[in-house]
TrEMBL record:
It catalyses: an aldehyde + NAD(+) + H2O = a carboxylate + NADH + 2 H(+). The active site is at 254. Belongs to the aldehyde dehydrogenase family. Keywords: Oxidoreductase. Pfam families: Aldedh. Its EC number is 1.2.1.3. Residues 28-49 are annotated as: Disordered. Residues 30-405, 423-513 form the Aldehyde dehydrogenase domain. PROSITE patterns: ALDEHYDE_DEHYDR_CYS, ALDEHYDE_DEHYDR_GLU. This is aldehyde dehydrogenase (NAD(+)).
Length: 518
C-alpha cells in the first residue's frame, strides 16, 4: 500500500486535469470544460469519458476489491487518515480551485476543504463490529457486515469536495472500492481529490471519471457496479433508482428539501434573526451554526438543507422581518476571490435561469417584496439579488416549489441527471403564524422531508414541536448542524437511506447471518 510519507513528498499541480483509472492519470480524445460562474469564462479542459473508460474503471475496481476487502479496518483507517492529512496540507490550493469552479467565497471554500478532511478523519475512526445474537452449547449466531463490491459516488456541484469525501470515506472503510463521478459543472476538485488519493490507496480502490450528461446513466445501469451513492434532486433520484433497479443495485439517495423554520414568540429577535455565531472546533462541530437569515443565504442558498420557508410568530413578525431585511442589505455579491464578497454567484446557467423565473413571478403573483426583487442581468456572472417575499400565499409557487430544481424542458433528456440539483436560490418567503397546530401542518405540507428547525427559549416546548415535524433532520435553535458521527438522510421524497455514522457505514454493506451449529 502507498505510504503516508510518499503522499506528502510533493504537492499536486493544479494546471492539468485527468481521469484516474487503475492508479493512473488518463486522458481522452474529446475534452470539455466548466465555467467560472463569477466571470462566465471557461475553466481548463477536462476529459470526457467513453463507455470503454467506464468499463476499464469497473474492471480495475473489481480487481482491487479482491484484496482491499480483505485488509483490516486499521489499515483502511490509517490510509484514510493519511489522505485527510494530505488534503489539509493543500487547503489553499483546493480552496482557490473550488472558488473558481463553484463560485463560493474563498473563506467558505476553505471551510469546505476543512469539512472534507474532518469527515474523512472522523469516519476513519468508525467501524461495524460483529453482533453476536446467540452463543450457547448448541449454536453461535453472528451478524456480519460485508462489503458490497464496487460503489459509485455521484457528487453534486454545490459541495464537490465535502460530499465527495463523505462518500469516499465510508466506502473504503467498509472494504469497498469506489468510482467518483464529479458533476460536469464542477469536475476539477473531484479529479484532483482522487488524484491525491492514489498516494495512499492501491490502484483501483478510488478512481474518478469526468464526463458529460451521459456518464450518470452509464454508471447507474452498469452491471459491474453494486452500489450508488447519489446526492441530487428528487426527480433525478427517481431516475437513478429506476435505472439501478434493473440490476438490483443498492442505493443511498440524498435528495431535495423544502426546509421550514418555526420561530416562536419567545426568541431573542436581534440575536436569532440576523447574526452569525460560531461553534468551537473543540466541540468537534463540523459546520458553523448560522442564524436565520444566514441559513437561508449560505452558499447563495445552494444547499439542500438551506432554510426555504420561515414561519414567524405574529407577535414578533414585524420586528423579525425588519432585522432580516437589514442583514440581507449587508450582503455583498461578487467574485469569491475578492476580499469583501459574502455572496457568490449561482453555480451554472440552467440554475440561474430557473431562479430568474421566480423574479418574473413577482409582478404576476403580486408578491410583496421587502428587499431585493429585481436582478441586475448585466453583471459579469450568474449573480442573484437576495430577496425576501413578505407573507405570500401558502399555495404560491415560491412557497411550494424549490426555487432550484429541474428545468421542465430538460425533464426527458439525459441532462436531467446533472443539472437539476435540489437547492434553492437566495429568494426567501416569510410567513406569520398564530396557531401551533396550524403552523406544524403548514410546515409538514410538502412531499419533501429533509430538514426542519424550531427556534424557542423553551427547550421542552421546542422539542415537542420538533418531534411532530416530518423530516429526517430536526434542529432546535440551530439548522444545518451536521456531523460525520450522526446519520443524515431524508423522509418522504427527500431520500432513501442515510449517510455517515454507523448507519452510513452499513449502507455500503451486505448483512450476513453466520449460523454455526456446534
Amino acid at each position: 500500500m502507498p505510504s503516508a510519507t510518499n503522499g506528502n513528498a510533493a504537492k499536486l499541480q493544479f494546471d492539468t486535469f485527468s481521469n484516474v483509472i487503475n492508479g493512473k492519470l488518463t486522458h481522452t480524445e474529446q475534452t470539455r470544460h466548466g465555467i467560472n460562474p463569477a466571470t462566465k469564462k471557461p475553466n481548463p479542459e477536462v476529459p470526457q469519458v467513453t463507455k470503454r473508460d467506464l468499463d476499464d474503471a469497473v474492471r480495475a475496481a473489481k480487481s482491487a476489491f479482491a484484496k482491499w476487502s480483505r485488509t483490516t479496518i486499521e489499515e483502511r483507517g490509517k490510509a484514510l487518515s493519511a489522505f485527510a492529512d494530505a488534503l489539509e496540507d493543500q487547503t489553499e490550493e483546493f480552496a482557490v480551485l473550488l472558488t473558481k469552479e463553484q463560485g463560493k467565497p474563498l473563506r467558505v471554500a476553505r471551510e469546505e476543504v476543512f469539512h472534507g478532511h474532518h469527515w474523512m478523519r472522523e469516519i476513519a475512526k468508525q467501524s461495524i463490529p460483529d453482533e453476536v445474537l446467540d452463543d450457547n452449547e448448541e449454536r453461535q449466531v453472528v451478524v456480519r457486515y460485508t462489503p458490497l463490491g464496487v460503489a459509485a459516488a455521484i457528487v453534486p456541484w454545490n459541495f464537490p469536495i465535502h460530499l465527495a469525501c463523505g462518500k469516499i470515506a465510508p466506502a473504503v472503510m467498509t472494504g469497498n472500492t469506489i468510482i467518483v463521478k464529479p458533476s460536469p459543472f464542477t469536475p476539477y476538485c473531484g479529479l484532483k481529490l482522487v488524484e491525491l488519493a492514489q498516494r495512499f490507496f492501491p490502484p483501483g480502490v478510488i478512481q474518478a471519471l469526468s464526463g458529460d450528461d451521459n456518464l450518470g446513466p452509464w454508471i447507474t445501469s452498469h452491471p459491474g457496479i453494486e452500489k450508488i451513492s447519489f446526492t441530487g434532486s428528487t426527480a433525478t433520484g427517481k431516475r437513478v433508482m429506476e435505472s439501478a433497479s434493473k440490476t438490483l443495485k443498492r442505493v443511498t439517495l440524498e435528495l431535495g428539501g423544502k426546509d421550514p423554520a418555526i420561530i416562536c414568540k419567545d426568541v431573542d429577535v436581534k440575536t436569532v434573526a440576523p447574526k452569525v455565531r460560531h461553534i468551537s472546533r473543540q466541540l468537534k462541530s463540523s459546520l458553523k451554526i448560522l442564524q436565520i437569515a444566514s441559513l437561508a443565504y449560505a452558499n447563495s442558498g445552494q444547499i439542500c438543507i438551506a432554510l426555504k420557508r420561515i414561519y414567524i410568530h405574529e407577535s414578533i413578525y414585524a420586528e423579525f422581518r425588519d432585522e432580516m431585511i437589514e442583514y440581507t442589505k449587508s450582503l455583498v455579491a461578487g467574485d469569491g476571490l475578492e476580499k469583501d464578497t459574502t455572496l457568490g454567484p449561482i453555480q451554472n446557467k440552467p440554475q440561474y435561469e430557473r431562479v430568474q423565473g421566480f423574479f418574473a413571478d413577482i409582478e404576476k403573483e403580486g408578491y410583496n417584496v421587502v428587499v431585493g426583487g429585481k436582478n441586475d442581468t448585466s453583471s459579469p456572472g450568474y449573480f442573484i439579488t437576495p430577496t425576501i417575499i413578505d407573507n405570500p400565499k401558502e399555495d404560491s409557487r415560491i412557497v411550494v416549489e424549490e426555487p432550484f430544481g429541474m428545468l421542465p424542458a430538460l425533464s426527458n433528456r439525459a441532462h436531467v441527471w446533472q443539472t437539476n440539483f435540489h437547492v434553492t436560490g437566495p429568494i426567501l418567503p416569510i410567513m406569520p403564524w398564530t396557531d401551533l397546530d396550524d403552523v406544524i401542518a403548514r410546515a409538514n405540507n410538502t412531499r419533501m422531508g429533509l430538514g426542519a428547525s424550531v427556534w424557542s427559549s423553551d427547550l421542552v416546548a421546542a422539542r415537542k414541536i420538533g418531534e411532530r415535524l416530518e423530516a429526517g433532520n430536526v434542529w432546535i435553535n440551530t439548522h444545518m448542524a451536521i456531523d460525520p458521527r450522526y446519520p443524515f438522510g431524508g423522509h418522504k421524497e427527500s431520500g432513501i437511506g442515510s449517510e455517515w455514522s454507523l448507519s452510513g457505514l452499513k449502507s455500503f454493506c451486505n448483512v450476513q447471518t453466520l449460523f454455526v451449529q456446534k
